[in-house]
Design brief:
Number of domains: 1
Order of helices and strands: HHHHHHHHH
Distance between the termini: 33 Å
Radius of gyration: 22 Å
Number of helices: 9
Structural class: mainly alpha
Strand content: under 5%
Length: 228
């Protein structure tokens, strides 16, 4: 019975994973890329590596992702890593298709604050959905999740801290204006990730306390009700 339930949930998790990665792909291409907002996380570090050391971002991201994936495999298990691979692979496919075939243009150059708000909302929803289905959208999200579980900090807060640190380093090669608006998007995304991942889940540390006398009265009432 339990295996049947797990089997039924697997397609649902896969669907949520694909929806989350589609939202991320749409946001990164149609909002971030088209409005020249920079990136945080491992992508931002890879761009910094290209600027400072001349390294290809594809190589840098791979070098950053692989160790984190190996750690996740040991700590989180095969299912988590499989969901992450599905997310990363589908993101690449979705983004490539949009880049090649999408004729949609969302021009917010005259209102980057709106672009930052939309980017933060959609990125937070997309990343949150991927995390809820038991995966991650990349090595930086995995690292945020592991630090969150290790230190007991909200995953969205860790997401914000890591991305802000990368954005500060990005000032070496990015204009201040775009970096500041990206920082706004990162803060919004972190809050939305926390909301999305915690929605419907019981809060930690709050347990219902029942006095011995009250518990006895509840049991007696239940017994009496059963007899009636």
């Amino acid at each position: 019975m339990r295996n049947a339930i797990r089997g039924a949930r697997l397609p649902q998790k896969l669907l949520v994973n694909l929806i989350g990665t589609f939202v991320l792909s749409f946001t990164y291409y149609h909002i971030n890329y088209q409005n020249h907002l920079t990136e945080g996380g491992f992508v931002g570090l890879s761009l910094l590596g290209k600027y400072v050391l001349g390294l290809s971002p594809s190589v840098t991201v791979l070098l950053l992702d692989v160790p984190v994936l190996l750690i996740a495999l040991m700590l989180k298990g095969k299912a988590f890593v499989c969901h992450t691979f599905i997310s990363v692979g589908s993101f690449t496919i979705f983004y490539g298709l949009m880049e090649r075939y999408s004729g949609m243009t969302l021009d917010f150059h005259g209102n980057l604050a709106l672009a930052a708000l939309l980017s933060g909302l959609l990125t937070g929803v997309g990343s949150g959905l991927v995390l809820r289905c038991g995966g991650a959208s990349g090595g930086d999200d995995i690292l945020s999740l592991l630090i969150s579980e290790w230190k007991g900090i909200k995953v969205g807060t860790v997401f914000i801290m890591m991305d802000i640190a990368v954005l500060l380093l990005s000032l070496f090669y990015m204009p201040l204006r775009e970096t500041v608006y990206t920082g706004m998007a990162v803060v919004v995304a972190g809050q939305v990730i926390t909301f999305t991942t915690s929605l419907g889940k019981p809060k930690r540390g709050k347990k219902l306390r029942v006095q011995p006398g009250a518990r006895g009265r509840q049991e007696a009432t239940a017994t009496l009700t059963g007899k009636l």
